[in-house]
Design brief:
By secondary structure, this protein is mainly α. The protein has helices at 3-10, 28-43, 47-63, 88-95, 121-128, 133-145, 151-168, 173-187, 194-207, 213-220, 226-239, 244-252, 258-273, 275-281, 290-301.
């Protein structure tokens, strides 16, 4: 929906989740995020396992159909099989190729946001496994490159994963942005990162300006490409660093890819403020298949040495 369409249906601003049949349904962003988390929990960053989960998910998205005896337990939940308007690039890349794309051998030249919106479990895995921020960044970038071959399609995922890793380690928001830039320069130094760093700088400047939330977001873009999604999420968080609700309200009241911008904003603000704040602000029990999401979270951190600071996942 356009911002005008949101205003026409919901009033001046959409402030709360919209219920459908008593629940808060989720989008393809959450479906793919859960699959990434489960893949990491089972085999770590093994291409074949995560890619196989994506492949089966895409088959359900395209054709629907019934479960088979060999299907993963996560697909026993209809919410993980239902068509949730998946991105064209993800669907085309997954169903049109037998193997995943890589950074070295890109599958296409797409820089859509379908890569960055699904990797928030990577830094949780990296912290729990005592991996470093550079491995967190590279792992997220590799997972994004399965489907998005343009550098902005996967470097932005690396940036987000590095940033979240440092937040979990105690960094403040602006500090985490600075360090994530440095990590990306170290990991992807052979690439021109100005397209990403310039728009991040623009988001930081706009967040400090007198522009309204809506004007600032519109100045950055619509969020269909990954660097815009990242920058718009950062703007929302910088504008509202103490309120996960206000940050998400800023993120989703836009003309553009609201669910992905909102998802990345939620990733950042959840990491900053922790699960207790999240649960105070929102009725998590109304989230669609909340028990399934909790199970995936538990598996991600089961038997691990550490859980990210501020989170009570299990």
């Amino acid at each position: 929906m356009s911002l005008d369409g949101i205003h026409a249906r919901y009033g001046d601003i959409l402030e709360s989740p919209v219920e459908h049949n008593g629940i808060y349904p989720f989008s393809d962003d959450t479906q793919m995020t859960i699959l990434t988390a489960i893949g990491l929990s089972e085999t770590g960053p093994m291409d074949d396992n995560i890619w196989a989960l994506y492949r089966r998910w895409a088959e359900f998205q395209r054709r629907g159909g019934k479960l088979s005896d060999g299907d993963h337990w996560v697909f026993s939940y209809s919410s993980m099989r239902d068509h949730r308007a998946p991105g064209n690039t993800c669907m085309t890349a997954i169903l049109g190729n037998r193997t995943a794309g890589t950074i070295e051998h890109p599958i296409n030249d797409s820089k859509g946001c379908g890569g960055i919106m699904r990797v928030s479990s990577v830094p949780i895995w990296a912290v729990a496994e005592d991996r470093g921020s550079l491995e967190s960044a590279m792992t997220a970038a590799r997972i994004a490159a399965y489907t998005h071959g343009h550098p902005m399609g996967y470097v932005t995922a690396g940036f987000l994963s590095s940033m979240l890793f440092h937040i979990f380690e105690g960094a403040a928001l602006r500090e985490s942005i600075r360090i994530a830039r440095e990590d990306c320069e170290q990991c992807f130094g052979d690439l021109d990162l100005s397209e990403m760093t310039d728009i991040i700088g623009k988001a930081e400047s706009l967040a400090d300006s007198e522009a309204s939330d809506q004007d600032g977001m519109a100045e950055i873009g619509e969020g269909w490409v990954a660097e815009e999604t990242l920058a718009m999420a950062l703007f929302s968080c910088l504008r509202h660093p103490d309120s996960i609700r206000d940050a998400i309200v800023c993120a989703v009241n836009v003309t553009g890819d609201s669910d992905s911008i909102g998802a990345v904003t939620g990733n950042i603000m959840g990491a900053l403020l922790g699960s207790d704040v999240l649960m105070r602000e929102f009725d998590v029990g109304k989230l669609e298949d909340e028990a399934m999401i909790r199970r995936a979270s538990e598996l991600l951190c089961a038997d691990k040495r550490r859980v990210p600071n501020g989170w009570n996942i299990i």
